[in-house]
Every structure is written in C-alpha cells, then in structure tokens.
Automatic annotation (TrEMBL):
<keyword id="KW-0812">Transmembrane</keyword>
<comment type="function">
    <text>Specifically methylates the guanosine in position 1516 of 16S rRNA.</text>
</comment>
<keyword id="KW-0489">Methyltransferase</keyword>
<keyword id="KW-0698">rRNA processing</keyword>
<feature type="transmembrane region" description="Helical">
    <location>
        <begin position="57"/>
        <end position="77"/>
    </location>
</feature>
<keyword id="KW-0963">Cytoplasm</keyword>
<comment type="similarity">
    <text>Belongs to the methyltransferase superfamily. RsmJ family.</text>
</comment>
<dbReference type="GO" id="GO:0032259">
    <property type="term" value="P:methylation"/>
</dbReference>
<dbReference type="Pfam" id="PF04445">
    <property type="entry name" value="SAM_MT"/>
</dbReference>
<feature type="binding site">
    <location>
        <position position="189"/>
    </location>
    <ligand>
        <name>S-adenosyl-L-methionine</name>
    </ligand>
</feature>
<keyword id="KW-0949">S-adenosyl-L-methionine</keyword>
<dbReference type="GO" id="GO:0008168">
    <property type="term" value="F:methyltransferase activity"/>
</dbReference>
<dbReference type="InterPro" id="IPR029063">
    <property type="entry name" value="SAM-dependent_MTases_sf"/>
</dbReference>
<keyword id="KW-0472">Membrane</keyword>
<dbReference type="InterPro" id="IPR007536">
    <property type="entry name" value="16SrRNA_methylTrfase_J"/>
</dbReference>
<keyword id="KW-0808">Transferase</keyword>
<keyword id="KW-1133">Transmembrane helix</keyword>
Length: 264
C-alpha cells in the first residue's frame, strides 16, 4: 500500500478501496482528483484507521459511498440522516429556511450556496422548495458532496429534493460573477474558527477542517455576493461573532449557537 500522506498535504490524500468491483470507480475518482490510489483489502479499515497518525487523511470508496477517514474517525455524508428534520412540522422552523425565505415569492426561489461544504444547509433549503446551486472550491469536499447527492437521487423520498440541488465545483468568487441571471439569494457560510469545546460531532467537523481551513477570503466572497445583485444575502455566523465585513445586517434570525444575518 502507498504511504499515507501527511496533514500538510491533504490535497494528496489517497483514494482507498477494498471491494474489487469498485476498483474502476476508485481509479476514475483518483484520476479525476489527481490522487494516488491504494487497495485496502489487505488491512481492515477499522484497524487501518486506528493505526494511522491522527493528522493523516484518506478517502475511502466503499459499498456505502465515499467517505473521508482520519483521526480514527470516518465521515460519510448522508442526506438520509436529515429525514427527521425535513418533516413538515419541523422544516419551517429551521433557522436557515426562515432566514432565506422571501415573503410573497410565488416562483421557486433561486439560491446560490457559495460555501456549500457537505451541503447540509443546501439540503434543508431544497427540502423547503428552494432551487439551490451549490459552489464548493475544495475538490475533495466537492467529491464527497457529489457522491452524497448521487445516493440521495437513488432514494425515492429524497430524489425530489436532490433534483433541486446542483453542484458546481469551483471558486464561488468567480462563479457568482458568471451567472446567467441574478439569484434571489446568495447564502454564505464561512467556516467558523475552531472552538475549544470538543464533542464527538465537533471532532468530525474538525476532520473536515483539516481539508478546508476556516475561510480567509470571506470579505471577497461577500463582495462577489453583492456583485451578483441578489434580492438578499444571508450569512451564517456564530451567535456572538462579529458581522462579516463589518457590514451591519438589516436583521438577523438567531438561535443559541448560530445566527443568520440578512442583508437586503
């Protein structure tokens, strides 16, 4: 097996596969991402995960889908886990849905999620009926999101939601300036700085942060969002965090841990 990469070069995280029938798909993925390929069949993945260094990451393509592994953890994006949250009695109470909603809009509201990540907020918006274009610059995170979206399209309950989600792998600062028409909403979620509290869930988010550091071009993203001339911009922030770009919002939709600043 090829030696796993160090944390400072996660862009070279190898693609692992165990099942022979997935070899062609793994090869195609590794080629597209320009990553090394390794067969992990000779070592069980749970053992491999515990024996690798905590600062090592690798992709694993298995029967369940594409996941990222490291620090003895596995992160497999899975929109089916959100089914309880998209029930009609709960979806309308989601803060992101409340913040992005445009009162009185009769046609489907078009949203550009400029910092899609693993698409969780985009999925909630699509479930609420929004048409969502997702932008993700990191190619590995984009691949994880693409695979999760593919699996959602195969789920009868989730397929109509996934049909309202479109992924563009690339820099949102460029994509926003190349849109054919102005979106109704641009949604920005610059990754929060690492917090001191560490639960199991947050550790998985830290695993993701090893791939993509907290956004250091947030001000440029905001400028690009303004340049796209949407009806409004929605920005996700820590509940007590500063306004992005020191631009005061017209109002905010806030919870205990996060808030959504709305700029008309």
């Amino acid at each position: 097996m090829e030696k796993l990469v160090e944390a400072r070069d996660h862009s070279r995280a190898p693609v692992l596969y165990a099942e022979a029938e997935l070899m062609d798909a793994a090869q195609a993925l590794a080629s597209r991402l320009q990553l090394p390929l390794a067969n992990s069949a000779s070592r069980p993945l749970d053992v491999l995960a515990t024996q690798t260094r905590s600062d090592t990451l690798f992709l694993h393509l298995g029967a369940a889908g594409l996941s990222i592994m490291g620090s003895s953890m596995l992160l497999l994006p899975d929109f089916s886990l959100f089914k309880p949250r998209i029930r009609p009695d709960r979806l309308g109470r989601e803060l992101v849905v409340r913040a992005v909603r445009i009162r009185g809009a009769e046609t489907p509201v078009r949203v550009v999620d400029a910092t899609a990540g693993l698409g969780e907020d985009a999925f909630l918006l699509a479930a609420a009926g929004f048409e969502v274009c997702m932008c993700e610059q990191n190619p590995i995170i984009a691949a994880l999101l693409e695979d999760a979206l593919r699996r959602a399209q195969q789920d009868l309950e989730l397929a109509p939601i996934a049909a309202r989600m479109r992924l563009i792998a690339g820099d949102a600062r460029e994509i926003l300036l190349q849109l054919d028409a102005a979106p109704d909403v641009v949604y920005l979620d610059p990754m929060f700085p690492e917090r001191k509290k560490r639960s199991a869930v947050k550790k998985k988010l830290q695993l993701l942060q090893q791939l993509e550091e907290p956004c250091d071009v947030a001000a440029e993203l905001l400028d690009a969002a303004i340049g796209a001339h949407p009806r409004k911009i929605v920005i996700k922030r820590p509940a007590k965090g500063p306004h992005l770009g020191q631009l005061k919002p017209a109002y905010s939709v806030a919870g205990k841990a996060i808030r959504f600043d709305v700029i008309p």
